[in-house]
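Follow-up to my post from last week.
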Amino acid sequence: MSAETEQHLVLAVSTVIFSLRPDPETGELTLWLPLVRRIREPFKNRWALPGGPLDNAHDLAEAANNTMQHTTQVQPRHLEQLYAFGDVDRSPEAPERVVSIVYWALVGQDEDLQVVDAENVEWHPVEEIPGPLAFDHDLIVRYAVDRLRAKVTYSPIAHAFLPEEFSLADLRRVYEAILNRALDPSNFRRQILSQGTVQDTGRRMTGTAHRPPKLYRSAPQSSRYALTIEENP
Amino acid sequence: MSAETEQHLVLAVSTVIFSLRPDPETGELTLWLPLVRRIREPFKNRWALPGGPLDNAHDLAEAANNTMQHTTQVQPRHLEQLYAFGDVDRSPEAPERVVSIVYWALVGQDEDLQVVDAENVEWHPVEEIPGPLAFDHDLIVRYAVDRLRAKVTYSPIAHAFLPEEFSLADLRRVYEAILNRALDPSNFRRQILSQGTVQDTGRRMTGTAHRPPKLYRSAPQSSRYALTIEENP
DNA sequence: CCACTTCAGGTTGACTTGACCACAAGTAGC
DNA sequence: GCTACTTGTGGTCAAGTCAACCTGAAGTGG
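User reply:
Got it. Predicted complex:
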């Protein structure tokens, strides 16, 4: 009994990696994520979240970080545990039971351009996921997007998408891409400045076809926890 | 390599079970939770969260539910995943690596009175944990309390501590016990009634030494997710 | 019948938020 | 060089939210 239990249970770590890219048609900034085409059963040839079995030598977050390296070859600007999925019947056709601990991550807006898309890895807009995905990964993606949208409203994680210096309009476009709705520039400015998460660099952007915006940088943040632990809706 | 990895990794499910009990000295309502005294190494004789290895036949939430049965012999009014803890060094003295998926639960204010305290199970106020606990359970308890306090402010889970019918003062005392601070009765009433999570039964409490309060019941809630999935601070 | 306690409901002022307006400061086209 | 255009910057105003506080309602106990 005990032997059978241990034998047929696999612990895996998967990661939902978010990046911002311009929509190829409209040119507007939208959320994208990388998917991996499975080359083995179960769910052979279906798209799945990047990840793999947990190596005994690594912490959970380290395993997620390694997945990021293999998939995007860049360091995440933000990495956070999402949820552990472990229902008995979540992979009915798999030979063993898989419990997945899922992380989600943000990579910088410019960094992912240098990514050499490895074989079987493809980026997709979150609104156009080529489903159904393997396992319960559709549910996981939907939940990760919900978490990201919720978190952006009470935490300065959106900065992670931007380079060192940025204008408030840049930041606003990130928020608009994540929340998928337009924000009033004036109100957005007031809100961001009041919460003290950005610092004025004193410099302005140059070469714009209009009034040059001030440049800001992220203020150093005080984290309450040593771990990055987060909450559910 | 692979064999060693599988062999030395154990997946466990633990549960932080909250109940409200009067403080034995002041008589005020406070948060309590059950701890189990370990009878084996590692951390022998130290207090730990109830739980155990994951049985291959059960979902994660089912495993947490079973832990509740063994520990408190009552059904939880609320059960929700907290976090997965899996650092390599979280149990340095243990022979194998343990990854714990931790749930937290609420049991009704009256129900836990009928609990037959099993051997090695003892309830403790969350502010007087007999630490240090086994493994990283001190950290887990602290995080679970934080999650509960955060969640009570935007979700009607506090109702879970109360019987079918209750007065707004009852509900307010639950909030005060969880948040550990006094709330203005008048503002609390307005806030609760405006969010529509309670229904007026039309009846009033009797036998009080003052104006009899109206009795309310919880309104049926609409959950966004089939699973109970939650968010982190 | 009066004192006391708690419930119930209303008022007020500080603060937040969204909608909107006006000006600032650059480029592009003529 | 002038004007149109675009986008950043800053302010106003009204609606809504929230904490502090006040007053009366309705019961029990002396």
